[in-house]
Amino acid sequence: MVASRDANPERAARLRRATGLLFRRIRSEAHGASGLTLSQESIVALLIDAPGGLTIAELARVEGVRAQTMSVAITTLERRGFVRRASDPLDRRRTILHATANGVAALNRSQELKQRWLEDALDGCAAEDLETLDDAMSVIERIIAR
Predict the structure, then answer these.
(1) Are strands 95-99 and 83-87 parallel, antiparallel or unpaired?
(2) Backbone angles phi, psi at 104, to 5 degrees
(3) DSSP bridge pairs for 41
(4) pLDDT of residue 6 exceeding 70
(5) How many Å from the N-terminal Cα to the C-terminal Cα in the chain?
(6) Buried b vs exposed e over 25-64: b needs ≥16 C-beta within 10 Å?
(7) d(CA 102, CA 80)
(8) pLDDT digits over 38-87, tens only?
(9) pLDDT, tens digit (0-9, with 9 covering 90-100), for 84-121
(10) How confident is the model at residue 3 (pLDDT cuts 50, 70, 90)?
(11) Phi-psi group of 64: left, alpha or beta (phi > 0 → left; psi -120 to 50 → alpha; rest → beta)
């Protein structure tokens, strides 16, 4: 495939606005239903994906925040039963964080609501629009992979 220089600033701005609006709309559909904010969802998802758990410092590094900021978020999640702390079996001075069953359930609930909203939205589209969307998603996936 030959690279094209047709990606003008207006196209890039339109794509940025459209994806931002879609992201906010999807997020608003599940807001409050799961009991998790977007940043809390991200933390719980990271902990689910790390079977051995993560430390506050590791989470902070991945999320791009200070350890103190992450500590506050973890305390809130722990108080609400979405995260638990455990001593590192190899180094008792370290605390390892894990998602709880309640955290997993809350994240699943949020993802299901978002998925359902998207499926309903797509259900109202014409077949040719869905084909166009499939083509556009392929382009977006290639952009992301660069």
Answers:
(1) antiparallel
(2) -60, -45
(3) none
(4) no
(5) 14
(6) eeeebbeeebbbeeebbbbbbbbeebeebbbbebbbeeee
(7) 9
(8) 899 999 999 999 989 999 999 999 999 999 999 999 999 999 999 999 99
(9) 999 988 888 899 999 999 999 999 999 999 999 999 99
(10) low
(11) left
Closest CA to 99 of 65, 142, 59, 143: 59
Query: How many Å separate Cα 141 from the centre of its chain?
Result: 16
Tokens of 58: 């590791």
pLDDT at 27 over 90: no
DSSP state string for 123-135? HTS-HHHHHHHHH
Q: Where are the beta strands (DSSP E) in 32-111?
A: 83-87, 95-99
Burial of 76 (0-12, 13-18, 19+ CB in 10 A): middle
